[in-house]
Each structure stands twice: as C-alpha cells, then as structure tokens.
Amino acid sequence: MMAIDRCVVAGDRSLFTALRQSLGPSGPDLEAAGDGESAIRLLSKQGAGGLIVEDQLTDMRATELLKRVRERPETRTKPVILVSGRHDEVDRVLAFELGADDFVPKPYSPRELALRLRAVLRRSQAQLDEPIDRFQIDRLSIDIPGHEVTVDGRVVGLTALEFKLLIDLARHRGFVRSREALLEAVWHHAGTLETRTVDTHIKRLREKLGEVGRQIETVRGVGYRLK
Fold first, then answer.
1. Residue 141 · residue 19 · CB < 8 Å
2. What is the pLDDT of residue 2?
3. Residue among 22, 10, 96 at smallest CA distance from 51
4. Cβ-count burial of 25 within 10 angstroms (0-12 exposed, 13-18 middle, 19+ buried)?
5. Which listed residue, of 52, 119, 124, 209, carries a Cα 20 to 30 Å from 100's Cα?
6. Which pairing describes strands 223-226 and 216-219: parallel, antiparallel, or unpaired?
7. Looking at domain 134-226, which of 3.40.30.10, 3.40.1170.60, 3.10.50.30, 1.10.10.10 is its CATH number?
C-alpha cells in the first residue's frame, strides 16, 4: 500500500513555516496552499495524505473546504485538522460533524500541532494497510466474511445492524463518527431516522462486548469513536 508522504497546509504562511520547523527533516513533506481551491487540488494528488486548514482562507470558509473534501471520492478519506480561532463548543462540534479528524484552537503550540498531525497520519496509514476483511483491535477480533466477532476468543452474538455498526467504527477507528454519518453508512437513512437510533444500538453493542465495549467512546455533541 502506498505510504503517506505529503501533507497540505492551507492558510497563513506562518502556520506552514512553524509546522515545517516542528516536524523537522523526518517529515512528512508539506505543501502550502493559500486558498481552498489550491488545497483541494493539492490534496487530490497521489501521495498527498492529509490536510491542515486554518479557518481564515481567502476564497472560502474552512467549513466549506471540509464539506468539499468529504464530498470528493479522491479526498473523502484523507485526515483533516482544523486550526481555528473559534473556541466555542459549537464550533468544535460543527467541525467534527463536517468531517474534521482533529480540532486545534488558537493560540496553538507548533510542536503539539506537529504531534497531532503525526498521530492522525499514523491512524490513517494503519487503516490503509489493514486487510479489509478482518480487524484485530486489542482483545477484539472482527471476521467480516465469517460474520463473527470475538473478544478474547469468545464469540459475541450480534445482530446484523450491530455487526455493521461495529465494522464502520472499526474501519474509522481513532476518528469521530457523527450520528448522521453512522445513520447513512449503517442504516442508509440519514434523513428519515432519529439520531437516538444510533445511541440505542451503541448501548446494546457496548453491553454485548463487555469490558471491550468501553473502547467505544462517546464524543459529546458529535458521535462515537472506537479507540
């Protein structure tokens, strides 16, 4: 599988410079984009693995850029970090709902931002390298063709919907999945079902998984994440 070797930085040049200095020669390489259109074009290229975007761009809001990144097949799975001067919870929630993988408020530490970038890229690369039909996550094992879930070798009986829900969380592990995204991916009815449907099934899934169910984290106001 192709390795992630470049990231796009959209926003002020000072962000690009500070991040490049913090990352050092070990990379990944960075490409600067002064506006949203340039960021999308660079992110669409082969080998571009992620995007860091400020909320102040010359041609569009960062939220609009997030929407467009998640709508394009060639960029929708690539990790995005939003660096924002907005500190309210509603801004963080909106960012995650639109598909951000991390949210860093200003003023930020360039070193911390570099560490966060490395973390999301590691998770993204791990998902690229993972066989698509089987997951081994700590004590949890998921065999998709065999339709079997085990914890410490013990088979866990799940309904078809619970199984699909767990697979989706596993495929996006480490990243937040909004309730709306889960409704669309698992039920295919994002606009006709209430979000509490997801909460009910998550509760049952946690109960069946026992202690391992604690790995399914609730992200307040947004959705769920499998650690």
1. no
2. 44
3. 10
4. exposed
5. 209
6. antiparallel
7. 1.10.10.10
Domain boundaries, the chain: 6-129, 134-226
- Gyration radius (Cα) of the chain, Å: 18
Average pLDDT, 10 consecutive residues per value, the chain (227 residues): 70 90 83 92 85 88 90 84 84 82 88 88 69 83 92 92 92 84 78 78 95 92 88
* b/e burial code for range 133-154 (CB count within 10 A of at least 16 → b): eebeeeebbbebeeeebebeee
Helices (H) and strands (E) in the chain, counts: 8, 12
Q: Are strands 154-156 and 148-151 parallel, antiparallel or unpaired?
A: antiparallel
